[in-house]
Amino acid sequence: MTGYNELSREGQLVSKTVTLPRLNRLSPSLESTALKIMEESGELAQAIGKLRGLSGERQRLEEEDAMQMVARELVDVAQTAVTMMFVLEEQYGINLEAILKEHLEKLRNKGYCD
């Protein structure tokens, strides 16, 4: 599920909320999840390569089909990253709320967001 949180005065998107579930029937480790992120990132890169004709194949995908593939692979990367966040919280006691606050502050300090 995604949702728009807030719009700026110029009508530009300020933030987007993406809700992804904790996966059941898995016992991911830090290592297995990191490897899965790399695998999914590779599939994302492959989808982008198909869009740009960089995959070594003679036939390129139409832009609409390629962008659908890119979006699907990006969600797979995001789901795996969220899974790793659950691993960090549950197995290592990491306070991700505090980490996310630090991250937003870092972005603000760099001028990337308000």
TrEMBL record:
Molecular-function annotations in GO: hydrolase activity
Q: Which Pfam families match?
A: MazG
Q: Which organism is it from?
A: Desulfosporosinus youngiae DSM 17734
- Show where the NTP pyrophosphohydrolase MazG-like domain sits: 30-109
Q: Which InterPro entries match?
A: AF0060_NTP-PPase_MazG-like, MazG-like_dom
- Recite the UniProt keywords alphabetically: Hydrolase
The protein's matches in Gene3D superfamilies, at most eight in alphabetical order, are given as:
MazG-like
Q: What is this protein called?
A: MazG nucleotide pyrophosphohydrolase family protein
